[in-house]
């Protein structure tokens, strides 16, 4: 640690100095400061953790804020949250491209932190300024004023700023942290230190989300929206401040070409060369300099035309393409083929993300149930999501540290479920979770009706909200199997040069899932209501049939499981790789960091 920090000598104010010297900083470095290393780790982790607390702390109770303050119905509210989630999960892909090809990771994270702070600040202003939202309904019987266009746009603008901020921070934070231990650091314990960084990074992410789901939600429930939105804004300001404070210590890698552009080049060149005939000799295919002659695979053969050498002038003396938009390498073609090959299995994970994105309905369920743990304390309705995180963490620990070692000891050989099997288990558990959610809601609604609360959606049902822990825990286990299994599957099946794609596919799936969830919800609301008939997803939780909605999602998940099996059969045998080992390899090759 001491070797990574500069040694400074304080100036003696009594000594004689020239005027130009007096204008310098009060500390003069004796020797050049070594950049990167452990000294940067707290700042990078703090930036990510504070962003998590601020952003995840706003989501749970946002349903109440929109329904109460903006008087939106449940369908409009949930659809707006779906669109916000879609933007938040899609923009990190854009952020990764911008960071790798244009701005660099440091500047992208810094700008993302500023945008996130501005977004939380604008949201806080909607709570602070009365005219920024519709006025309260009066008691004179007059109709309540609806949200104006300007009020609605200000709200959406705050969501957009926060999504842009997440797009800058989330795809770059882990990779930027790994950059601080790059090959310029000749520490023989580099991989041990890097593994420690990854462990602290993921631990802080889980802890920060738990703090958001408990502390921030509690502040909103007890102290109102002004304090509940103000604290996340302050945290985002501190997140940006801490990150920029350590700027002199960071290693800031230069930008490089992005693999996304490579895919576009392959498609463009393949289209240009569509009339070419396939060559008979392997040497007629262009390959990466130094890799030796290679032949592209027969699958998706039309893409092979992107790497056919039409004339010797297409290749420079150093072996590179004279124009990458006229000639690609075999490696580029194979990378695109690998991506296309995993896309069907990638699509099977969308349904799980749809199930996990149903945030508003569990919130209304918890609000209508008995949430008391003691006479003086009750769990905030928005905090029940923490049970999913707790279940996920406990299950990962038991699976990795207890179940697998025990199974290996019994079998007498290493036992490990390959990623594709874990993905299937995750889909199955998610289906069971939706079935259980429907059963719990069916019992809750029946009790509400028996207690005379059919027309009173704010009435408290004599049923413990702890029943919601069961579906939340199942969601956590499903997420543990699916998300971790999917990530390892992408890392094992895609080439090392496509690790940035592997890390982006999960977020892209969640973005697509949010959009599809909005389509499903709108369709259910439209086709299940009629004259004198309440929609399944009515704003009145006791008149609606949320259990039917949950069971519909369970049915779609069951069909998705069959689709997954078909995709596995079509895909064939899959590889397996230790993701930790792969991340260590990537840290030695900055161009391939996710």
Automatic annotation (TrEMBL):
An example Gene Ontology biological process: oligopeptide transport
Residue ranges crossing the lipid bilayer per the database entry: 39-59, 80-99, 105-125, 152-178, 198-219, 231-251, 345-364, 376-398, 418-440, 501-524, 548-572
Keywords (A to Z) from UniProt: Membrane, Transmembrane, Transmembrane helix
Subcellular location, record wording: Membrane
InterPro entries linked to this entry: MFS_trans_sf, POT_fam, PTR2_symporter_CS
Pfam family, one: PTR2
Membrane topology of the entry: Multi-pass membrane protein
GO terms for MF: transmembrane transporter activity
Cellular component GO terms, alphabetical: membrane
Main subcellular location: membrane
Domain of life: Eukaryota
Family note: Belongs to the major facilitator superfamily. Proton-dependent oligopeptide transporter (POT/PTR) (TC 2.A.17) family.
Name recorded for this polypeptide: Nitrate transporter
């Amino acid at each position: 640690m001491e070797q990574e920090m500069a040694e400074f000598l304080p100036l003696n104010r009594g000594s004689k100095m020239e005027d130009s010297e007096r204008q310098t900083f009060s500390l003069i470095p004796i020797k050049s400061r070594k950049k990167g290393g452990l000294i940067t780790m707290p700042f990078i982790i703090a930036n990510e953790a504070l962003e998590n607390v601020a952003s995840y702390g706003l989501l749970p109770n946002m349903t109440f804020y929109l329904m109460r303050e903006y008087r939106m119905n449940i369908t409009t509210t949930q659809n707006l949250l779906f669109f916000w989630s879609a933007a938040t999960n899609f923009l990190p892909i854009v952020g990764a491209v911008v960071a790798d090809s244009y701005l660099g990771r440091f500047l992208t994270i810094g700008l993302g932190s500023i945008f996130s702070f501005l977004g939380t600040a604008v949201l806080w202003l909607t709570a602070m300024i009365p005219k920024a939202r519709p006025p309260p309904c009066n008691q004179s019987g007059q109709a309540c004023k609806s949200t104006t266009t300007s009020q609605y746009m200000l709200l959406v603008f705050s969501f957009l700023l926060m999504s842009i901020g997440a797009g800058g921070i989330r795809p770059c934070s882990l990779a930027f942290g790994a950059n601080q231990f790059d090959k310029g650091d000749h520490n023989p314990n580099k991989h041990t230190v890097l593994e420690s960084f990854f462990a602290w990074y993921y631990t802080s992410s889980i802890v920060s989300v738990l703090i958001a789901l408990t502390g921030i939600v509690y502040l909103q429930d007890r102290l109102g929206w002004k304090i509940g939105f103000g604290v996340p804004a302050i945290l985002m300001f501190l997140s940006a401040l801490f990150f920029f404070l350590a700027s002199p210590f960071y290693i800031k890698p230069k930008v490089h070409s992005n693999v996304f552009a490579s895919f576009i080049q392959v498609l463009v060149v393949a289209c240009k060369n569509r009339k070419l005939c396939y060559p008979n000799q392997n040497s007629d295919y262009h390959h990466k300099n130094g890799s030796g002659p290679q032949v592209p695979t027969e699958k998706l053969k039309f893409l092979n035309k992107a790497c056919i050498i039409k004339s010797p002038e297409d290749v420079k003396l150093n072996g590179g393409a004279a124009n990458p938009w006229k000639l690609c390498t075999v490696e580029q073609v194979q990378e695109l083929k690998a991506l296309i090959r995993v896309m069907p299995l990638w699509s099977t994970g969308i349904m799980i993300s749809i199930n996990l994105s149903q945030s508003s309905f569990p919130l209304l369920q918890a609000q209508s149930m008995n949430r008391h743990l003691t006479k003086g304390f009750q769990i905030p309705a928005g905090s029940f999501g923490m049970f999913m995180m707790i279940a996920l963490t406990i299950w990962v620990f038991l699976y990795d540290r207890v179940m697998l070692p025990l199974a290996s000891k019994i079998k007498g050989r290493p036992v490990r479920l390959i990623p594709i099997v874990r993905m299937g288990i995750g889909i199955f558990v998610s289906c069971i979770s939706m079935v259980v959610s429907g059963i719990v809601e069916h019992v809750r609604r029946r009790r509400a009706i028996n207690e005379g609360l059919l027309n009173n959606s704010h009435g408290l049902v004599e049923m413990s909200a702890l029943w919601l822990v069961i579906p939340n825990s199942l969601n956590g286990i499903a997420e543990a199997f699916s998300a971790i299994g999917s990530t390892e599957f992408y890392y094992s099946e895609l080439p090392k040069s496509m690790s940035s794609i592997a890390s982006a596919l999960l977020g892209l799936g969640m973005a697509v899932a949010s959009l599809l969830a909005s389509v499903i919800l709108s369709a259910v609301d439209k086709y299940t209501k009629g004259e004198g008939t309440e929609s399944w997803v009515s704003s009145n939780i006791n008149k609606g049939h949320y259990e039917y909605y949950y069971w519909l999602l369970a049915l779609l998940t069951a069909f998705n499981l069959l689709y997954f099996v078909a995709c596995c059969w079509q895909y064939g045998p899959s590889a397996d790789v230790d993701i930790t080992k792969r991340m260590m390899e990537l840290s030695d090759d900055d161009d391939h960091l996710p």
